Amino acid sequence: MTKTNKNGKNGIYAVPNEMGDSSPPKADWNGNYVLKILFVVFVIFAIIRPVFAANSALQLSPFLIEQDLHRGQNFSQDITVTNAGESPKFLTLSLNDFLPAGTDGETQILPVDRTAPSQTSLARWIIIDQQPKYNLEPGESTQVKFTIHVPVDAEAGAHYGALLFTLDDQIVLPGQSLVRQQVATLVIVDIDRSFERGNISSFGLADVGGRTSNLQFLMTFHNSGLNSLKPKGEIAIKNIFGREVANAYINRDANTVLPATDRIFASKAQGNFWGRYTAVATVTFGSNKLQSRATAVFWIFPPVVTILWGVLYLIVIVVVITLSVRRYNAWLRSKIKISSGK
């Protein structure tokens, strides 16, 4: 409520309402607060939206090419590049090597002026036969044709590189450096498959967090050979009586493990579990169908059952202590009677 004070100035004062409440009015403060929230949301959206738009502006097909080749052999392939954005895009193309990074299949694409070791380098074998159109209108597609020329003295094992497309769009976020969108088609070529080696290096149940269903298992596969591998298999889960009660697929999407790297695969098993179980993971990999196996034993107890077991355990302890004290007291009384009778 607006009211004139003794000095003749207008101001806002707390005036008792019908309920006798003399607290300051909240309508104006709430309105300003809502406006502030909306302003912050608008600013955040205005900053983040261009990043999302840029991340979806360019589409490649295929995004992964894997091929087994022999020394001296050539292999040709097309890549389709599509501008899925709402504005014209100007792009550049470069041939790069890449290195594996992390245990989830991540890659680190090297700069053009840096090459991978000769044992894994591929970019130097790639020749562009047909250049793409570098200025694309919204919805427009173009193709790039390339050929891989494998040297007659190529080293055995997996070689990998990338065709890297860079957009001319520039995004600068507050307090950050210039950001350019880059997308790539990864190419993996295997020469001579006689160096396939690998094994399950770790296997077990992930943190259940009190759950008794939809359990997640984590398996780490180590590629100790020179060739790329796609370990695929299954987890068989048996109860305490040896009966199989559930199973889960390992690497259903046939993801690749590059040489001298580890990759973690997550698998989910459906069902309700209670008690002791044995999980056996078996994977098959390589051209010769090699196998690796690992076993994990685990217990699953629902939280309620765990609490009940704890209460029962305490009850048993109390009963045992009570009976022991009673027996001791009875023995002590009998000793006293015998002593007094003498």
Tell me briefly what this model is.
This protein has two helices and 21 strands. The chain is an alpha+beta fold and 342 residues long.
Question: Helices and strands in order, then pairings?
Answer:
Layout: E1 2-4, E2 10-12, H1 27-55, E3 58-61, E4 64-69, E5 74-83, E6 89-101, E7 106-109, E8 126-130, E9 135-136, E10 141-149, E11 157-167, E12 171-172, E13 178-179, E14 182-191, E15 198-205, E16 213-223, E17 232-239, E18 244-250, E19 261-272, E20 275-285, E21 290-300, H2 303-341
Parallel strand pairs: 4-14
Antiparallel strand pairs: 1-2, 3-5, 5-10, 6-7, 6-9, 6-11, 8-10, 11-14, 12-13, 15-16, 16-19, 17-18, 17-20, 20-21
CATH class of the largest domain: Mainly Beta
CATH topology of the largest domain: Immunoglobulin-like
When the domains are counted, the total is 3
Number of helices: 2
Strand content: 35-45%
Structural class: alpha+beta
CATH architecture level-2 label of the largest domain:
Sandwich
CATH H-level superfamily of the largest domain: Immunoglobulins
Mean pLDDT: 82
Specify the overall morphology.
Answer: elongated
| Count of DSSP strands | 21
Compressed to H and E, one letter per element, the order equals EEHEEEEEEEEEEEEEEEEEEEH
Estimated radius of gyration: 35 Å
Helix percent reads 10-25%
How would you describe the overall organization of this protein?
- The chain has helices at 27-55, 303-341; strands at residues 2-4, 10-12, 58-61, 64-69, 74-83, 89-101, 106-109, 126-130, 135-136, 141-149, 157-167, 171-172, 178-179, 182-191, 198-205, 213-223, 232-239, 244-250, 261-272, 275-285, 290-300.
- It is an alpha+beta fold.
- It folds into 3 domains: 23-55; 58-191, Immunoglobulin-like; 198-303, Immunoglobulin-like (Sandwich).
- The strands form 6 sheets. Strands 4, 6, 7, 9, 11 and 14 form a 6-stranded mixed beta sheet that branches.
- A hairpin with a 4-residue loop joins strand 20 (275-285) and strand 21.
- The longest helix has 39 residues, at 303-341.
- Residues 1-29 and 34-55 have low confidence and may be disordered.
